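Quick one, T. Sequence first:
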Amino acid sequence: MDEFANLLREAAQWMSHPLFSMGESPVSTFSLLTALLIFCAFLLFSKLLGRAIDRFTRERPSFHPASIYALKQLLHYTLFAAGVMFAMSSVGIDFSKLAIVAGAIGVGVGLGLQGLVNNFVSGLILFFERSLKVGDYVELESGVTGEVREINFRSTLVTTNDNIDVVVPNSEFVNSRVTNWTMRETLRRFRVPFGVAYGSDKELVQRAVIEAANAVAYTDTDARKRTPEVWLVEFGDSSLNFELLVWIGDEDAIKRPGRVLATYNWAIESALVRNNIEIPFPQRDLHLRSGFERLLAGEKATEESG
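Structure tokens:
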């Protein structure tokens, strides 16, 4: 028993022995372990708090998932920063004496961290402005389209329809034009262009295509909303060019615009063929001048005289 007590006493002395000093505060193994435990305790509390929020909101569907996600991220980063500060304080760091360090950080920001700070501030704007949320289907000015999976303080994760994850800096969402397909509601109008040959019955084209559009599962058939329409939009070189305007209220379909257009193109082509409406192809009329005919006649006379 005495040997165990001596062993504990020696271990306590070893852990309390100063390893180095930070200013006037000695730093020992015990103080470093204490700081690590404090930091881990804050991280554990952040994780448990996130789970508690999930359990609380799971039974209350009135809470929007995007707002819950933003709240959890904000609490996590707040507790992370608090854990760092308390851990450093336990080591003996006096924050009142960090003015020089803060000045150096300010110079660093001014010299080389503008982009990082810009993305960080842009992330805060996205969190509080709520112009972008997890689950939205967006189209960026750079051409990236996909569903928002995560919104972090520096970047946002967008997954394309090809299941490719694209990490986009938050500043691109704030400083550039962003098309949000699902920001307010899920009812959207799609335009499907198609053409028929000149001389086709326009009324028959309209009836056939609207009938085909109503048969597609994506079409919103609620009479109180918009119904499909067919517009004659252009007199093309080889065809009468129409557009099918159809309203879609399925959020999953809105996030798959390529599949939606392909489905309507398939239905339109089948309807036109079924109603014997010609689908044109580019063609040109060739007119021969009379001078060309005389030239051929002269060449023929020369051959006969020879």
